[in-house]
Amino acid sequence: FTIMPPSRDPDGQFTKNAKLGSHSLMLRKKLKDQKTVIDNKNANETMSNVVNNNNQNKRNENTISEPHASKNEEQKELIEESYEDIQNKRKQLPAYKCGNEILNIVRENQVVVIVGETGSGKTTQLPQILSKEYGKKIGITQPRRVAALSVATRVAQEMNVELGTLVGYTIRFEDKTTKDTRIKYMTDGILLRETLKDSMLYEYDCIIMDEAHERTLNTDVLLGFFKNLLAKRRDIKLIITSATMNASKFVQFFPNAPNYIIPGRTFPVTNIYTRFPVSDYLESAIQQCVKIHMSTPLNEDILIFMTGQEDVEMACGMLMEKLIAVYSSKYQEDPDKLQNEICIFPFYSTLPQDSQKQVFKPLNSTNKRKVIVSTNIAETSLTIDGIKHVIDCGYSKLKVYNPRIGLDSLQITPISQANAQQRSGRAGRTGPGTCYRLYTESTFLFEMYKETIPEIQRTNLSNVLLMLKSLGVQDVLSFPFIDPPPKVTLMTSLYELWSIGTLDNMGNLTKLGTQMAKFPLNPNLCKMLINSIALDCTEELLIIVSMLSIPNIFYRPKNAEAEADKERARFYVAGSDHITLLNVYSQWRANRYSSQWCKKHYIIYRSMQRANDIIGQLRSIMDSIVKGNMRKSRRYNSNKTNTILGIHDNNTFSSWKNVRKCIVSGYSYKNIGKRVGLNKYISLQNGMPLQLHPTSSLFGLGDLPPYVVYHELLLTTKEYITVVTAADPIWLVEYNLLFFNISCTDSAQQEIAENIQKLKEKKLKRLQDDKAMFNSNAIKELD
Ligand code: CDP
Ligand code: MG
Fold this sequence. Notes:
By secondary structure, this protein is an alpha/beta fold.
């Protein structure tokens, strides 16, 4: 081990990062190239995955290996629990045992804060306990989609009913409930959306805000919302659950709420720290895991915490390689020994559901070890039984507002002490355990935050403010936030909403804003969809927006990168990655939605099916907006499957005018790039250099468009823009994206510049007046 000098904080943010010094350098070398997906989507649920980029010059962004399609081998070794097993297990849970006490305390109080160790049965048992008393509907919110889904499945099993009947779940774009559903698991984002439809939540007589300690943005807004609602609906019960003992925040926020503690049954966990900071947490984790495997009984399972999907996948691969190497030298005569001894499972939120379920099932032999490599979803949201050893890398991925670029990004960030304690706790559920912390004790004691900073204090608030405004909250600055966000962030977000036309000069919702709030999408995508009505390209935009809502469309298997890239390039539409996505979809449709076709072209079939679902849902929202009083958008005959591409001959740059115009119209001043060199653009917002990402269809073109809009910014060693579309600068002015002066030295651009100048002179004055008025109103509000 070597001690490294302190790392610099790349963005001048999260100053704690910088203080962590050598600890930060545990980020392995690969992470120098680690991308951060700038969450321009800023949607309720993060849809992007941060993908590793080993070679910046390869077209490999947003392409991952086809997710574990088949796990047949492992499935054979897993056992299905019988109904009796499940019931027996259930009766052992601490929450089950104190069911009556919980019922009593809920009966007597409108708000109850319930604290219990992870795995004590809060999520699965509380709704079942409460359903004895509460007849309408019980809603349980989860910060993570995967938890909502997985837990609903478990509870349906426990109650011996089919999922989607008495017990169901709703996550964005996926509703598995009926009008008879009594126990409804959902993401906190979904409940927040429901408050828009019915601000009294009459459907429910009981809401459980689960995992409140995670303090997601949506949870925080819901807490504020309930603060107002509880007085209006005396009959509704609110239960707030938290896995950490520090529930005092909630008790202070709801002063009359009792704090009920579910008696724990945890065992001591020994924390073992590294003596020196490790230089590569991934390698250290693998080494540690092999060491444990070689020296402990096989019935003791291991849980390894990594930061994200890419880390998890890589760790699984490396661990296998390492074990093969160790085994082949140790057990030369018996190479099968490895397979009989160990089962490795990746676990992360975008893993296919089937593979996720496997993780919970017990192995059929006690002489075999389970190793689970997980993101922080296994920290408190989901409990895997039988873990005896935990390896904690000390990091997690967090959404952080990056003031330099004015956008949210997912960044690998040191965990807090509270996270570390939770991770350790996973080893002590069934007996004493061990946690190997891949950082020093002094890092833990003196460099980690005590608690994670709540999301509301570190992210962009545009979506939330749009929602609050639609809920009729006029003065967002005095909304009862449990931890008020910084005023500067509030103001920036208000300004952004105003700049895309969502708020008027007085800070009230415009008609556009009201329509936008109906979509479960980020404001840019909503605006595009709404503008598509006037531009007569709704069908195309429904497809594009839906395709953008899916994290991965293309996959790029390790041994066939070149082939996959070639296939991908076949779909390129000159000048637009957005339209390239449309092209993929319409060709898929032309091939009768075939899975074979997807396979052939390295496209993830599951993603395409999901896009289809999303199109349907967004279409019904569009219909409700159009409703006859507006001119209906063109609906082409879906039997003529090639229409979309057919009518635009040859996919030439100029043939997609309306669609491109519509795409451009959705973005804001933050998403414009101006060309300054070969493959190089700068941000018109702040002059930051931007590179076209190699996966862009524009990459390497000789004649690059002078202006582009982009959907995402990836932070690596450089700033890359992905999902890019050429923008006619006139449109930028027409749709108010430009508040800036354009100076042209290039004579070819002279004419454009003159046209813009004419338009601008007319518009700029008005814009400036508007801006001044908006600012003075806003400042008044602040004062
Ligand atoms: O919410 P809390 O962490 O208190 O516990 P829980 O999620 O209700 O889990 C209680 C028990 O249910 C644990 O023993 C889990 O292993 C089990 N469970 C499961 O087997 N499968 C799931 N999908 C969820 C929970
Ligand atoms: Mg839980």
